[in-house]
């Protein structure tokens, strides 16, 4: 009898919150992990109203920014997993390279809630913006695009683009409740200095095609380096001329794509990428030699308008590794390539090294293995927004 009464009391406590004022219930909910908060919207109509109020979102974001010593949760996601025959079956559902955030710790974090996310053809992550991901079913001949929030498993499908293009450079911007997807061919070999640029806007629900100026006739976009949104513009690494191609979709005077200089003393043509760390635009490269000393170098863009770069780090690998590296990889004849910059820490970069994903502290020269049996050269630093970005429901 006592056990029955206790269960009845527990059920009453869980269900009856009428004696709790709104302000106190709000204070309690504010202290829950954001992933749980969205689940608790289904508890009752009252909880749904409280959590859905924009005031609640502002309070939650303010508390996160002021009370936590660390920055917004983030993780490294695998962008592409290629064919099954070269990827172990245990990695097919794995999208996460790091495990430091509790929001990613739950089993099954994946993109399997998206349509056509099959085991034999995992969905591709193309870009991220403000806590959302832009995904596609294929790498070439892209036509089925999805925008999703993997934290709350919300997604929408975009209308198919108007023209089939084998390989495209894609950009994604989400701001103030609206989003845009921009795409154009990754290469141009024709005699004309113009190209076809396609833009999808959530405000119109349609793809808009325009002919824009191209700064060079024979450009080639480096697609294994993610697009970077910085200072209002999208940035892609250009391979053939060793430049950055930029595009500002909201500049009324913008007549098309533009070129931006890379550091004058850069050396690597292949092993390089762009990124943003703590709001600073950076360029990261490893000299592309397979034997002998290799350099790791990181520049920061000190003046965007003047395109002035400042070298932050230059490290020779031959004298930088600690002894525990030899426990899992031979010291000589190794291959190394840059993968990502830490979005919150200037000193930490991520490298592919001997079949492993490693983090490397540029200040302490300490190397740590964070993922073994690493089969992808494609990583994306995915940062949560303080309050999950909801995707406007499509009207098209």
From TrEMBL:
Q: One matching Pfam family, short form?
A: F-box
Give all residue intervals belonging to the F-box domain. 14-59
Q: Could you tell me which Gene3D superfamilies the record lists for this protein?
A: 1.20.1280.50
Name the InterPro entries for this protein: At3g26010-like, Beta-prop_At3g26010-like, F-box-assoc_interact_dom, F-box-like_dom_sf, F-box_dom
Matches recorded under PANTHER family: F-BOX DOMAIN-CONTAINING PROTEIN, F-BOX PROTEIN INTERACTION DOMAIN PROTEIN-RELATED
Q: What protein name does the entry list?
A: F-box domain-containing protein
Source taxonomy: Eukaryota, Viridiplantae, Streptophyta, Embryophyta, Tracheophyta
